[in-house]
Amino acid sequence: MKTIVIGGTGYTGRHVVDACLREGHEVSVVARSPAADLPSGVVFHQGDASALSHEDWLPILDGHEALVFAAGVDSRAEVPPPSNTYFRHHNVDAVERMMRAARKSGITSAVIHGSYNMTLHRQYPELKLPERHPYIASRADQAIQARAAAGPGCSVAVLEIPYVFGRTPNRPNQFEYMIPWLNGTSNLPLMAPPGGTALVSAAAIGTATCTALNTQLDGDYPVAQANMTWHQLVSRLSRFAGHPDPDAIRSLPGPVFRRFMQFNGYRDRLRGVDSGLDFAHYGELYTSKMFIPECVPELGIDAADLDSALRETVAG
Hints:
Blueprint: E1 2-6, H1 13-22, E2 26-31, E3 43-46, H2 54-61, E4 66-69, H3 84-105, E5 109-115, H4 117-123, H5 129-132, H6 134-150, E6 155-161, E7 163-165, H7 179-183, E8 190-192, E9 196-201, H8 202-215, E10 219-222, E11 226-229, H9 230-241, E12 249-251, H10 254-271, H11 279-286, E13 289-290, H12 306-314
Parallel strand pairs: 1-2, 1-4, 2-3, 4-5, 5-6, 6-10, 7-9, 8-12, 9-13
Antiparallel strand pairs: 9-11
């Protein structure tokens, strides 16, 4: 299968490239900047997915049978408010143009890397997540527009991805700032609020993506290897980081943590930035159990590599 990975030098996209190569795919990559460590034989196209027009995409996608979009932006982005235009530009409009070109190019299998906030929206509709958070709204619209643009001849699997652990060659560690706290060198106490989250390794995302392409999965698929409370996750990470007492974790009351998140939202407004999450509301979700189905069988993953991914995330 000839497969193109948009964002193939990124944190998750690079693992997709490796998984597809292991399965015998011919792989092309589209990314803003080249990566020196791309395997031999991978065809590289330099370009910004959010800036490419429908006409730009046509020659890039020509001859491919499958594509992966791993170039979306997440809620770590800090942009001037209101952020809805920014997230729509990167997560919705870019995908719609790409998928219209994919339809014309004859691509029959596509995978979009999305967010587990959409899984949580289905589980907790009363929280009105897309209505309250521009970032989550962009993920909801992304799936709708991708399928509408792809048409009936192309399967579209949206992988709804939670917190991701592991390392990617030549990419920054997104949890680097937490390591001094987790290993005890900051001298700040370990603390955890109520609730918890789903988690997955970057390598497992690569495997799940390739499986979805090979089997032409169509639909929305949560991708998780485990669900942990925040207390369990902090304990596990601090142990792998080498903290002298990884079980000495103080409980942070939910109302206190939610007030802290509200303060962060207020601070962001003073700074003139917006992450696409309304922290006045998101704290309610964050201190609940953000658990989703684990190891969905169709995706061909298990939890075997999760501990090693957690360890390499925080290893010095």
